[in-house]
């Protein structure tokens, strides 16, 4: 039977369109939910995200694990945006820093330690939250880099240390799209609520930022 304009066929068409649109919306929601579950499945109690033992995020770094009491598992940047690098000074030797970061009673550790000769040790994966900033929000959004030495000894901040740390920071910034500026690369002293003073007045920020930018562009540091 031929239907007139505005008759049953048109109503059926509208109904089909509405139902189809609703189904598409449900389908999209289901896909998003499935994607979320696939990303977060490892957070189910009793399930651990697969890890490669001894893996490092920075080529050339040596892996030495910090105590698990000094950091917590995460899936950054999927669960926390990483948009900051925080510069520390150990106020002690390289060996003593490694030792305290392995001490479960210490309660703190950074992702990396840079030695005066440019050697880099990684103790916590970048995807995990290190207890290094003394501020939960800043811990969740940052990568912490310790530098072996003392804030009142400018001679501890060697050319090799600056160059190695700058390459490390440039790589972190490239991985997470972090702007190379002093709003996103900061000292521990600049973290809200902290009582720390590192890296101190002898840390040459102008030089360091220049080296980070050059490392990011592949230029040879001067």
TrEMBL record:
Reactions this protein catalyses: Hydrolyzes the link between N-acetylmuramoyl residues and L-amino acid residues in certain cell-wall glycopeptides
Q: What does the entry give for GO biological process?
A: cell wall organization; peptidoglycan catabolic process; peptidoglycan turnover
Q: Report which superkingdom the organism of origin falls in.
A: Bacteria
Q: Name one Pfam family in it.
A: Amidase_2
Q: What SMART domains does the record point to? A: Ami_2 (SM00644)
Q: What is its EC number?
A: 3.5.1.28
This entry's Gene Ontology molecular function terms read:
N-acetylmuramoyl-L-alanine amidase activity
Keywords assigned by UniProt? Answer: Cell wall biogenesis/degradation, Hydrolase, Membrane, Transmembrane, Transmembrane helix
> Mind telling me which Gene3D superfamilies this protein's record contains?
Peptidoglycan recognition protein-like (3.40.80.10)
Give the residue spans that cross the bilayer. Answer: 12-33
What positions does the domain N-acetylmuramoyl-L-alanine amidase occupy? 71-200
State the InterPro entries in the record: Amidase/PGRP_sf, Amidase_domain, NAMLAA_amidase_2
What PANTHER family would the database entry show?
Answer: N-ACETYLMURAMOYL-L-ALANINE AMIDASE AMID
Protein name in UniProt: N-acetylmuramoyl-L-alanine amidase
Native species of this protein?
Answer: Streptomyces chromofuscus
């Amino acid at each position: 039977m031929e239907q007139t304009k505005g008759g049953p066929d048109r109503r059926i068409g509208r109904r089909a369109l509405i139902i189809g649109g609703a189904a598409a919306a449900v389908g999209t929601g289901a896909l998003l939910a499935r994607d979320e579950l696939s990303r977060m499945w490892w957070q189910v109690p009793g399930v651990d995200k697969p890890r490669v033992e001894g893996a490092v995020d920075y080529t050339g770094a040596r892996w030495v694990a910090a105590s698990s009491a000094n950091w917590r598992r995460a899936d950054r940047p999927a669960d926390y945006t990483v948009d900051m690098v925080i510069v520390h000074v150990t106020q002690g030797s390289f060996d003593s820093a490694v030792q305290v970061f392995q001490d479960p009673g210490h309660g703190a550790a950074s992702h990396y330690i840079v030695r005066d000769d440019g050697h880099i040790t990684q103790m916590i994966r970048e995807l995990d939250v290190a207890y290094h900033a003394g501020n939960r929000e800043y811990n969740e959004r940052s990568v912490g880099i310790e530098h072996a030495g003392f804030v009142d000894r400018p001679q501890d901040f060697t050319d090799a240390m600056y160059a190695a740390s700058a390459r490390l920071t440039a790589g972190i910034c490239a991985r997470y799209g972090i702007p190379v500026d002093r709003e996103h690369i900061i000292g521990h002293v600049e973290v809200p609520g902290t009582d720390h003073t590192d890296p101190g007045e002898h840390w040459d920020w102008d030089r360091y930022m220049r080296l980070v930018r050059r490392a990011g562009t592949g230029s040879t540091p001067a």
